[in-house]
Amino acid sequence: LTNFVSVEGLTNDEVMALITRAEAFKQGKAHLELATDVYAANLFFENSTRTKSSFQMAESKLGMKQIVFDPQSSSVKKGETLYDTLLTLNAVGVDLAVIRHPQNKYYQELLNLPANSHLNIGVVNAGDGSGQHPSQCLLDLMTIYEHFGHFQGLKIAIIGDLTNSRVARSNMEMLTQLGAEVYFSGPKYWFTEEFEHYGQYLPVDDLVDQMDVVMLLRVQHERHQDDANEAQFDAVQYHAQYGINQARYDRLQDDAIIMHPGPINRGVELASNLVEAPKSMFFQQMQNGVFARMAMIEAVLRGRKLGGLN
Ligand code: CP
After folding, report:
1. Which residues pair with 8 in a beta bridge?
2. Per the confidence metrics, is the pTM higher than 0.95?
3. In the chain, what are the domain boundaries?
4. For the sheet containing 96-101, what is the strand order?
5. For ligand 1, atom 4, which residue shows the shortest CA distance?
6. Is CATH 3.40.50.1370 correct for 12-132+287-308?
7. What is the position in ligand 1's atom list of the atom closest to the CA of 46?
8. How many CB atoms lie within 10 A of CB 295?
9. Which residues line the pocket of ligand 1, CB cutoff 6 A?
């Protein structure tokens, strides 16, 4: 891979190779020796704690060097485009750009460059609008695989703010491709036609005791400016109707797990006292994020023959 912008197009073998490599990094069985300096810049045009810090950690663990980029104090504020920003960073020596951006498929213009373009930088997508979140998908797949050892036939419910969720889109595509059965729940107005292709909608109470994985999505209020339902949103009511409370937690199968990409709205998607409950995998997800991202970056470094890798 010379860029890593989406999980679309990855084969099951490629996904499994990335998971295996991430596990090897996690277990200390794999190390990279970069023969030359490789510079990364992390460009986050939307807020992030997990993704940004774990990409930074992954780059450090791979022996890369980082150039700090802060959109707020950058010339983006003077109107410089993403393309021109990357041209600049590339010109000063940055080899790899990890980008989070509010615009869906912002990366397309960066992949389809005109022949005379000077830009030669690897792009890793850290989330584009409501489009894709490939690194979250990979760390989620790694976490599920660690727990179950396979994907085939697993029943996985994705519950919540589907419409706005790049996590849901990446995960429903890859989980289905890997042989899992995907179900959806949450407010019905977020279950639009595109999701019907991947799985059935069922009420939360019909799902909890049937699922191997309950994947909760954050209610993304910051993306609800045009959502007619936002004015009526009631956190207490949401929790009662769609959240995992103690009663629903108690109905989960013995081996079932709960996942959430974070940040969690405590008391909304999940009762606050269940955040650190035994079936809650959030800490494994966050930890695995470092190693999944190491595997993703390594694939791009090898694809670009950076750091003396091939
Ligand atoms: N899961 C996730 O993308 O979290 P952050 O927004 O904190 O990076």
Report:
1. none
2. yes
3. 12-132+287-308, 134-281
4. 65-67, 39-44, 96-101, 122-128
5. 50
6. yes
7. 6
8. 26
9. 48-52, 127, 136, 261-263
